[in-house]
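Subject: complex prediction, re-run

Hi both,

The earlier run crashed halfway through, so I resubmitted it with identical inputs.
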Amino acid sequence: MKLSEIAKVIGAEFHAEDRDISAINSITDAKEDEISFISDKHLLKDLETTHAAAIIIDKNISKNLKQNTDHIFLEVDNAYWSMAVLTKYFFKHPKEEIYEEKNGIRVAQNVTIGKNSVVMPGVVIGKNVTIGENCIIYPNVVIYRDCKVGNDCIIHANSVIGSDGFGYATNKEGVHKKVYQNGNVILEDDVEIGSNTSIDRAVFGSTIVESGSKIDNLVHIAHNCIIGKRSIIAGQTGLAGSSKLGQNTVLGSQSGVAGHLEIAPFNQFAARTGITKSVKESGKVFAGFPFMEHRKWLKIQAKIAQLIK
Amino acid sequence: MKLSEIAKVIGAEFHAEDRDISAINSITDAKEDEISFISDKHLLKDLETTHAAAIIIDKNISKNLKQNTDHIFLEVDNAYWSMAVLTKYFFKHPKEEIYEEKNGIRVAQNVTIGKNSVVMPGVVIGKNVTIGENCIIYPNVVIYRDCKVGNDCIIHANSVIGSDGFGYATNKEGVHKKVYQNGNVILEDDVEIGSNTSIDRAVFGSTIVESGSKIDNLVHIAHNCIIGKRSIIAGQTGLAGSSKLGQNTVLGSQSGVAGHLEIAPFNQFAARTGITKSVKESGKVFAGFPFMEHRKWLKIQAKIAQLIK
Amino acid sequence: MKLSEIAKVIGAEFHAEDRDISAINSITDAKEDEISFISDKHLLKDLETTHAAAIIIDKNISKNLKQNTDHIFLEVDNAYWSMAVLTKYFFKHPKEEIYEEKNGIRVAQNVTIGKNSVVMPGVVIGKNVTIGENCIIYPNVVIYRDCKVGNDCIIHANSVIGSDGFGYATNKEGVHKKVYQNGNVILEDDVEIGSNTSIDRAVFGSTIVESGSKIDNLVHIAHNCIIGKRSIIAGQTGLAGSSKLGQNTVLGSQSGVAGHLEIAPFNQFAARTGITKSVKESGKVFAGFPFMEHRKWLKIQAKIAQLIK
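This time it finished cleanly. Structure:
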């Protein structure tokens, strides 16, 4: 898509030299042919290092910028909303996918399945998906386009790899504009996913489950999360968007992780822990909501029990 | 079904003029050719305005009624149980549905799919379902019979629209008698549903997701809920039966809403809020379980943290 | 598999008479042609009564055993890890299953479906599964091999019966070795399962849902649980492994049950109860996390609310 067309779509003035834009990306990850956006002044610090070809920016933020920058800015009232509008233009609509059926398995174009991998009936595999060797994909699993599954992976029945992350821009009238999720999901090697689990594709880039991690049933992994290698995530746990678990994290059943957190490696979280802040130490056991060290949580529960006496 | 047959099925005496009954319905919503039931004396207040053709009623309740009513009563020991027994007679058994396959999509009789809508492989669409224009129905979604999907809707993989609400009558021996769920689900326009989400059909009438609402993965919406327009329901949240969310309600991840509540518009609930009462004010932020205003919850958590010092 | 081969696979010395081993099983349930394991000294008490043909045991535990036992021991550094290694040899790989399609239903070898049962399109039924009479299996349900469904059962769309329990042995490096789950799931008569629910197969033996029990949507039942007859499990509840619910247990929505618990019959647990200990009394109502009697929980909540005043 031409930069001039983008400017037209989002209603921004455009006077720079025109060029082709291949994708939208975050300010930190954008490549030289990608466009990014700044909807929060805290992102201004990334201007110096970004490779973005152009930047959609809130007028309220850009008006305070010095003029001596090399960046191309597209100034709009609401950069986040404009970005949402634009994602639709980069969305790869499923109508482009053509499925073929064999033994009850439906596979779109350009799919690779490694040797000794078993794909069972009812599985649907989107365009450009790669599946490694020695995998078992159980019935009725759905893998959306562009996702990657490593070697020695097991995905249990009715799980979904690559559904859209839950992202919307909301205007003053309370109308929600979908942010199309144009990234993917990568499952590295030796990953096991339980049944009825959902792992959402990234808005840009990848949601990643690193090698050797094991995820139970009915788990929700939101867009852009990174699950460190050899992590264990027990049943009905949920992670909000963009959180990163260090290696060998253990999340007990029905835990929850808020968005944009970073959890240091080798920590354990008891069942139902509600993780609301990043964790910098390693080797600890946490519990509770708000969460705290497990032994402290036990003490507080004892105190609360005394309350009633 | 004839009223006389109904009386026979539930073991009630019947001496009135016979007539055809088309459905069971609640006392407030029953139409003139429908039968209803009173299993709770609080429902007696609705007797004056109901249009029900006849009313199944507990003997314990009816014995206190004045005789000068025009209603036809079918008196039984346990009206709720009798109603449950009767629902089976109005159940439209799936054996009546005949599916045809095209491109891996299975569609029963009398289904309408609007123009530009894309239905992907593995989707199963029951009898009488209508789907609007410009929709995307991702693989392996199941839409049960009689449900309606509006225009511009997206339903992600492996979600279920219209499974039975969770309703049983239980007798003294602890045996559960299924209340067949003969209603449907209506998704209005511009609704998005995540993956592995379940929206149950109404016992009578409709479970409704109003226009512009967005629902994340692994969400449970029970029978007869109404989700107000432009609401946001984050991952792994659950709503019990018959609750109504006002427009632009925001439910954080892993929240829960008890049954039969009414939530005023424009409220936000933090992740994991347990909503146990109706909310009459608007524009507030709530948290906790039992839930309270978010700032109050923060104070209480601080107090609890002090307990241990 | 020959006992001598097993010894070789797990690197144990073997000097006894060789014989065929048909399966791995727990020390209490092992039959005379099955092998078991002791990875915890608390299991030593079961040595007297076990029928196991041989026992894999930690060297640290076996060194304290008296020599005058009749048992055949295979001594290893980490019996649990060795057992995990061995489960793969007894795993029945899905590549052995050959599916045939009829009306959109995929059925493997040796499946029995009783009269008047309706199986809907997209359902996948593994090898050796039996389904009783008068059942409804809604679209896209997956029933893994060897599972049994009784008479008069209903399973709603996209639920999974028999996915693998979540079990791994973990070594000092934090690598997780899969414990292949070679048991099954048994649903007795008159059981209803909601949509998007997962019931995991047992590691050995059976996960059982007894007759007349009703399970809602998005429920997670882990391996080796036993759900007592006529129990009610509401939406988004999860049970960890090997817990047993007595008959007529009621679990409110979003409840959780820790592993290896025993709950006496006829107890009710409010929504979101976190059940962390076995319950010996009957006829009570519990709530909270940590859980307590419901009336006590209400008092504590009132006290906590006073804290802030």
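Chain A has four helices and 34 strands.

- K.
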